[in-house]
Specification:
By secondary structure, the chain is α+β, with helices and mostly antiparallel strands. It is globular, with a radius of gyration of 16 Å. It has three helices and seven strands. The N terminus is likely disordered.
Amino acid sequence: MGFGSIDPVAPTPYIAAMATRDIVIIPDKRLRLVSEPVKTVDKSIRTLVDDMFETMYAAPGIGLAAIQIGVAQRVVTMDLAKKDDPPEPQVFINPVVTWSSDVTSTYDEGCLSIPEYYEEVERPAKVKVKYLDLDGKEHEIEADGLLATCLQHEIDHTNGVLFIDHISKLKRDRVMKKFKKAAKHGESTKPAHPSDDVPEHHLG
């Protein structure tokens, strides 16, 4: 599917201090925090971005919001390249949806913070998003297809919203109960590796 007009922004080259961080899993309350805007794109933000890419690729997933590694800042990393294609890393700092279409599309979404759970979610089919790059420069893109879905999913994370908030209360309560029970009994809820045919489901 088409990805609209894309203006990808690659991260700075990985530095020696990069690290894979633990992904926050529901019902961890940090996932409900509203992230703070980034005031200055400095070395600490670039280090955060490097760690986010390292964590996202290792999971594996195609998108990640900083709050998913416990950092309440409005930073999103993304790479929608297909498995055998060269990486296409993108960084969105302080992303904001400035416009969304009335036409909607439905996508089978998953989330690294809700491993092994997928559900169809209806969202606007096209969006415009304003954001900063790693040089602090402002951009605006118009996106459709998977890019539009992924942007909305990750921007939701920066606002303390999960994709399960877009499904029925019955289904949402069921999945929350399952993860609360697992957390109570200390069971593993690590993100699972998606199958090769559906890697795009783990949006972040």
